[in-house]
Fold:
Amino acid sequence: MRKKKNENFYAELINSRDIIDITSLEKRISDITKHGKQLIENEITAINKLLENRYEKYGIIDEAENVEAFKRGYYDLGKIGLTLNEIRTRIIRLGYEKETSLGIRIQQDWNYTAHLLNDLLYLENINLHNYLALLNEHLEKCKNSDLHSIYSEKQLEGIYNYLCRKKLFCDNTKLRDFLKVFKSYGFENFDKIKVNTSQRGNKALLRVAVEVLTKNFPVSLVNRYFADENGNHLNIGCHNRSTAYDDYRKEMLQILS
Structure:
């Protein structure tokens, strides 16, 4: 089902005569990021492969030919499956805005077949390029990778409910945000999850939970996504280790098993 859905989406990117709205592309990426960094990287690989295949549509001018063309001063246009006029016709049919950087480049390349072919290919695949740029941008934002958990959302929900029973959080309706912390990447405008710091030992309990879920304890990132009961800096540190550490750890691992 997922494979078919991906194929339909890729077909839309390729076949649409219009530039697809960025909001639609962002929504697709948002759905992907919920499942982690690896899926973003897989998507980037898939789009790059599509572009590679699409750019071979009218013939291939490889790096060796670029070197030879530089020496000769011209390309062997026999390797291109379109004439200069055919390329121009396709570009005019697709349409472009002359004031944009792409439009300016097209006008500069108008009399140069090899360069204008690259402009045509970019124009034909502009939705793929836009989507790839957004994917790379989101991958770059994956600053909280150390907090990513390999556990499923169902398992994380089990841990969240366990922590609620321990009265760790001020508000027990923050499951969605909890999942976001451990399964999403590069999210912004995030309201910190408030920890009930008036109950002794809760900072230490949070540390145990983070270590169990991530096999790590990135202090700065924990402080970035969690706050004390007043919404202030949690000031959690590596020294916050519970005397009941082993008991908590054992109970959480049992939930995750």
Remarks:
- The two ends are 28 Å apart (CA to CA).
- Residues 146-256 form one domain.
- The longest strand covers residues 193-194.
- The CA atoms of residues 144 and 221 lie 7 Å apart.
